[in-house]
Amino acid sequence: MVLFIWSNRLLLIHCMEGHTGKNYAGYAQFDYKYKKLTTSVGLRGEYNRIDTSYTRGYLTPKINNLPFQPVFRAGMNYQLLQYTFLRASYGQGYRFPTIAEKYISTSVSALQIYPNQSLQPERGWSAEIGIKQGFKLFNFKGFLDIAGFWTEYSDMVEFTFDIYGNKTGLFYLDIDKAGFKSQNVGKARINGIDASITGTGKMGPINVSTLIGFTYTNPIYLNYDPKVDTLGIEGLKVLKYRNQQLFKADIQLDYKKLSIGWSTRFYSYMENVDRRFEQSILHEYNDIPNGVNWDNIPSTYIIPGLKEYRASHKNTTYVTIGDYEIAKWSGDWIHDARISYQVSKAVKASVIVNNVFKCRIQFKTR
What is the pTM of this model? Predict the structure, then answer.
């Protein structure tokens, strides 16, 4: 099967002055199945324009001024055995800066948000290989799914705090230039593994449905240099605002019209954040020999006390054998509970408790 799609979009936003954004895209996809093998190949051509900034398609360092950006994807799925499936995929990514990132200037309370007209498009690619295995254990049937993934970015875009404009070296003149701006931060890589088990079965008259999953990611700046890179916390090349480990589990019991469920999620400690959330915005103006240390003045922080809060809420768990530490992890566990009753075909009443140990309750009917 061959599929062709063409779309165009015109966006107009007024912010201080008028800016016009345009997006045109065409997409073709070819799907083919031969015995136990299913394949798919697609190609998308994309053109974006905001005022005088427009797409310059890139293939290689020498082919970098095409009238559109080609984006390729391909995937395959092969049934190796009756309940065993292998899959692999590859896809490219392209994101043109938004009007807000390039042109909008605003403020949130005393915090400034600056535009970046020189912001470049973010490009990348992603690949995955995985296996899905069906199984049966007594009255329980399910699937085990394991996949490895690899993603790389160039000209990655991040929202970054700094003092923008000509720095005078005098804090009372530069403080009005402090704020956030979208910036290209260079090359980045995110790779890892994802595993999950899903299934359903019977315990007497009760139907049991379960989901257990774990994801580990390694998100890093590829061109990180601790001497010059000051985007995040000093010495960390992990990308900002990432939880490297995620565990989730859910179980639901159904008996006639009654359903009871419990879900658990674990988010590992967020190692890296913008350095300005743990550092005074006037840090560069410290003069320690002369007794000037802005880092000791809470009012010069974006969120006073956040650094201390993060340090005291890592929630680290240690696993030891005797006097030896064999494992540890830091992060947050969140538990949710739910119960529902099917009153009629059209009405279902539910009670949902989000974050059980901090107890936020919702009542729903539908």
Answer: 0.84
* Residues paired with residue 327 on neighbouring β-strands, in sequence order: 319
Q: Is 212 exposed, middle or buried (0-12, 13-18, 19+ CB in 10 A)?
A: middle
Place of tokens 């010069």: 300
Contact 69, 58 (CB under 8 A): yes
CB 36, CB 83: distance < 8 Å? no
| Residue 190: both structure tokens together | 């995110």
Other Cβ atoms within 10 Å of 331 Cβ, number: 20
Q: Cβ distance 341 to 348 under 8 Å?
A: yes
Radius of gyration (Cα) for the chain, nearest Å? 26
Q: What is the pLDDT along the chain (366 residues), one digit of tens a residue?
A: 445 445 554 444 444 457 788 889 999 999 999 999 999 999 999 999 988 888 999 888 888 889 999 999 999 999 999 999 999 999 999 999 988 888 888 877 667 889 999 999 999 999 999 999 999 988 899 999 999 999 999 999 998 888 887 777 777 777 777 888 999 988 999 999 999 999 999 999 999 999 999 999 999 999 887 776 767 888 888 999 999 999 999 999 999 999 999 999 999 999 999 888 888 888 888 888 988 898 898 888 888 889 899 989 888 888 888 888 888 889 999 999 999 999 998 999 999 999 988 765 555 555
